[in-house]
Amino acid sequence: MIAFITEHKDHCVADGLRWGVEPLCAVLSEHQIPLSASTYYEWVSRAPSRRQLRDDEVSETIRAERASSAFVATLGSRKMWLRLRSQGHDVARCTVERLMRVNGWEGACYRKTVRTTIPDKFHHRAADLVNRDFDPPAPNRLWVADFSYVPTWTGMVYVAFVIDAYARRIIGWRVARQMTTALVLDALEHAFFTRVREGVNDLTGLVAHSDAGSQYTSIAFTQRLLDAGVDASVGSVGDALDNALAETTVGSFKTELIRRQGPWRDVDHVEIATMNWVHWFNTERSHDALDDLTPQTVERLHYDHQTTLAAAG
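Above: the chain sequence. Below: its structure as tokens.
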């Protein structure tokens, strides 16, 4: 009621006359909302409480974070709380949840996806070596791959990813105008390049898992895996759970980037945005499955631990 009176007390009704505080309080009292003018003036002259001041401070911090990056603006209350804590802000999770709700701030919401897995009955399909176990003990034990579509003003564009399952890190990706074997093969080559650049030249024991799409069961893709000493693995047709980790990553890509920052002009527009999102996903975005760490941090901790063990031995 205080806000209502403040909003309407200076409204003109006729010949320059205003409603005023006392008439409004009288009308409200007649309608079983008792409020005296003295009570109103007491409220508006009251200094903000410590909680109000703290709420304003935290709200401004959240607002600044959301404005700093389009990717940060996709964070829900839990991930925003983790981000603030990591930057030294001592704030409770329930406070972040309440203030985001009050300000109408929401994280990205996931939607149903369109099926892009189109099998080829003439292709030989490798066995499923993963059996829905996406929790390898170290990097380069299991890679998962998938691709999706992005509508643009110049036609459909396709984006393929290769993810190391250990830390959920995207190590290869590719954007192209056509949904062909070259698309997924280039993403695979990018993954190989990433690991070679990091000093990994032996991928013996690695399993590369994908869905049963014709691009992944093609001779060219399968042969490239064989040449690198990598075992191919293919999930069953029409079962998203058999490639759940890759589909989850693609879902994050569509939800956090594609649906929030369009419309998209062309393949170049999508490619630049994807590059920025992958960097954000690997280096800044916390993951529930990684104890709220980033993929890059988890891989670094793994290798640091291995180095410590080697030195101790």
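The longest helix spans residues 50-68.
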